[in-house]
Amino acid sequence: MTQTSATVSALLVLFALFDWQHSSFAQTKTTDFDIALKACADNKKITIAPYLLEKMSALYADEATKNTLNGLGSFLSQLPESDRGAGYGIYQQCVVDILPVLKNTGQSQGGNSLESKQPVATVTYKVCSGEYERACQQHDVYLYCYVDVRAWAAARCATSTVSRYNTYGGNKCGYSMDLVTCTGPK
Questions:
Q1: What is the 3-state secondary structure (H, E, C) of 6-43?
Q2: Which of 93, 105, 133, 183 could, after both became Cys, cross-link 142 (CB 3.0–4.6 A)?
Q3: Average pLDDT, the chain
Q4: Which of 134, 126, 104 is nearest to 176 (CA)?
Q5: Mind listing the pLDDT tens digit for each residue in 135-154?
C-alpha cells in the first residue's frame, strides 16, 4: 500500500467516525472525497484553487456526474478550458488514488457508512510500453510493444484504473507511460 493510499484510508476512517458521532454537522458536511483530495494535495504540496476544489467536489457529490471522475477525458471535459492543465495534474496525482479507496471502503458521498470493510490494498504502478526497457522513462513495470496494459492490470488486480500520462516516439513502436492503480493485487 502506498503512503498516499494509507493516508487517504486513515483519513476516511477518521472522518467516518467523526461524522457518525457528530451528525448535527450534516448541513455543512464535507464529503470523504473533499477530505481525501485536500489531504492528498497537502501531502504532495499541490495548490488547488478553491473554486476548482468546489467544482471537483460537486462532480463527485452529484450522482449524475460522479462517473465523469472515472476517466481523465470525461473529467477534463467538465472543467473550464483554462483549468484543464491544473485539473490534469490533480487527477493524475490524487484522484486516481482516491477513487479506488472510496469505492472499496464502502463510503458513499455522505461518508457515514460504519459497515466499512477492511481497506483493500491499493498499489500504483508506472508502466512503460515500448521496444527497449532502457529507453523507458522512470517506471515500475516494463511491457513490450503493443502489450495491452488493461489486460496486464486485469490479470494482476481485483480492479484497476489505467491512465495514460505520456507518450513519446522512438524505435519500433514508440513508448507510452501509463499509471495503473491496482486495487486488491493478486
A1: HHHHHHHHHHHHHHHHCHHHHHHCCCHHHHHHHHHHHH
A2: 133
A3: 76
A4: 126
A5: 999 999 999 999 999 999 99
